[in-house]
Amino acid sequence: MSFISRLRQASLSHHRRFSTLLSQDSTTPLFSKQKSRAALRLIKAEKNPSRIVEICKAASLTPEAHLDRIALSVAITKLYESNHFEFIREFIDDLKSRPDLRTERFVSHAMVLYGQAKMIDHAIRTFEQCDELGVTRSVRVLNSLIFACILAKNYKEVNRVFVSFPKIYGIEPDLDTYNWVIKAFSESGSTSSAYSILAEMDRKGVKPNSATFSSLFSGFYLEERFEDVGKVMKLMEKYGFRPGVGTYNTRIHGLCKLKRAGEAKALLAGMLSKGMKPNSVTYSHLIHGFCKEGKLDEAKKLFKEMVHRGCQPDSNCYFTLVYFLCQGKDFETALEVSKESIAKNWVPNFSTMKSLVEGLASESKVTEARELISVIKEKITANVDLWNEIEASLP
């Protein structure tokens, strides 16, 4: 019995439950965005793989809508993590049978979903099925297949598809094609191979853009090939590019990952001396970099400077700082930063906050620890029993 047949014979109670959840009442269906949000919420909470697919089907999710794409991505990730590859294949094949989804957009997205699940053979089969699906094998579809291979970290297949498929199917690569291939080289530790791609781009009259150089910087920093970083800077000049904030952020991130935050900070000074305005990403990379090196005073200074310059920290920046401050036993500052984060409805994870509560208690700040627990329980209903136990154990 096929997967779809099994779904059709699934419990009627399940069908009614999901239908009810995806509608406001029996007569008033949810608007499209509301339905997508409801489906996403249910998918995130559901553990049963067959019910995850039921939710997707009940909500009629398609890649045409942004929220639907997110929901489908979450569903495929959960099915992949639970090793339900046959569910993924039969579910996507069922979507292919829908006449309204026989489009370039759907085929492209289906291959990306297969890439997420590391099912590249099925992504390639989908590309080869374009004729029977009534879809033209455009460069956009080719680029989606290459992106799927990158998601699956199958870099050998990226190279095979790039070298063979344009010739076999008569597709002319564009800038996005070349950028994806360069990204694959940079992720796989063979960034120097990208020079041949740049030469081909020159021959074809395709000019690189900021994404091209960003991948090159990331790759060469990952491989600690600093001479090549200098070459890329010269290439940017050759093509008339001035390094912008994005370029600096990529370089700062690369240095911070190598635990060379001091050099990364020198790049920030260079930005400021040129009158460039760093953004929150710039500071987040630096704060994370200094935290990883145990230089918490420098990280705290940068956090203050960030806010002073009008750059708003995101949730990850707050979480990173609170975590490392707790590791460094600076519980007082960690409490201040966590309060600011929680006020924005960003609550660090349970283990980090438990570490902070216990740290405050160890420094005889039990009142502050209890107040923090109270605020956390107001914001998040999960782990309430665990927090009650921790609170009861406080002196």
- Given as residue ranges, the uncertain stretches (5+ residues, pLDDT < 50) are 1-15, 24-29
Number of strands: 0
β content, as a range?
under 5%
Helix tally equals: 24
Name the shape in a single word.
flat
Radius of gyration from the alpha-carbon trace, in angstroms: 25 Å
Helix content: over 70%
Distance between the termini: 61 Å
What is the makeup of the main sheet? Answer: none
N-to-C SSE series? HHHHHHHHHHHHHHHHHHHHHHHH
What is the overall pLDDT average?
A: 90
Structural class: mainly alpha
Protein name: Tetratricopeptide-like helical domain containing protein
Family: Belongs to the PPR family. P subfamily.
Keywords: Repeat, Transit peptide
PPR repeats: 174-208, 209-243, 244-278, 279-313
Report on the architecture of this protein.
By secondary structure, this protein is mainly α. Among the domains are: 173-242, no CATH class; 245-313, Tetratricopeptide repeat domain (Serine Threonine Protein Phosphatase 5, Tetratricopeptide repeat); 322-394, no CATH class. The protein has helices spanning 3-8, 12-21, 32-45, 49-58, 66-81, 85-96, 104-116, 120-128, 130-133, 139-151, 155-169, 175-187, 194-204, 210-222, 226-238, 245-257, 261-273, 280-292, 296-308, 315-327, 331-343, 350-362, 366-379, 384-393. It is flat, with a radius of gyration of 25 Å. The relative contact order is 0.04.
